[in-house]
Amino acid sequence: MSAYILGIESSCDDTSAAVFKDDTILSNKIANQDVHMEYGGVVPELASRAHQQNIIPVVDKALKDAGVTASQIDAVAFTRGPGLMGSLLVGTSFAKGFALANDIPLIEVNHLHAHVLAHFIKEPDEATEHPEFPFICLLVSGGNSQIVLVKSYTEMEVVGQTIDDAAGEAFDKCAKVMGLPYPGGPLIDKLAKEGNPEAFIFSKPRIKNYDYSFSGLKTSFLYFLRDQLKVNPDFIEENKKDLCASLQKTIIDILLNKLELAAKDLKINQIALAGGVSANSGLRNGLEMLAKRKKWKTFIPKFAYTTDNAAMIAVTGYFKYEEKQFVDHSVAPFSRVVF
Question: Which domains does the chain have, with CATH numbers?
């Protein structure tokens, strides 16, 4: 018998709700928060207040677009963490209230697991190829950069991760130094298409195993610009496209070099990409080129499922629903990375 799952995502600044029939998407609604652009980053207090305003209308719209009533929902899945505590509390509280009001099970979802399982979202009347277990997922976002060995829907192991800053953070912070508005990552990607990726050379960290580090790159980029601006105050404006292309190439090289090493050592050729930075065209193209050389089978999500969205929460919730992995109402959100 089919199950209807309501997914709630509120880990950062996007309020999202999705309705699934088993693992098939019926609706996925997102309310963005433009207020953070003028501050150059997400302001936690403003984010949590906006979630309070958005959560009810977003859920209502998701249910209506899916053609499903609240009484038809069999379980509600919500993002427990990691993320901003104030934002998570809004989603968690709403999910608990919805579950209580409708006497249905509550399912907690790890935000990072959900990014990985976004590859298993099915769309009506559309054939979608999914990775086969085990596979490796390169999970890159504003807050996380990880290489994940995915053994099943519910069993995953982080084999490599950043020891400091994430790739997405490096994009945004370096963009800010160049005077680009927030979020800077997409703008760097856009400008990089018109620049020369070989124009400037930036240092790459030497970290053991499959781990990453991006703090050194951010610092070297800052010092490089500082020194160049002393000679030419217009250096950034005159070289912005080449700076973006060179920076993007460096970050992508760092990400893919460790991914290549992990795939070789683990002897796995099923490779997936996930997280907000997976929308980066340079990373997508770089992975596809590497896959051709290494004879990998790659899986790259649709753009709609790269950034934070409730569809990935709902599909993860469905797999946990099948395993009857429910939680009671004493469960609390967590803000830091727990995989």
Answer: 4-127+305-322 (3.30.420.40), 135-301 (3.30.420.40)
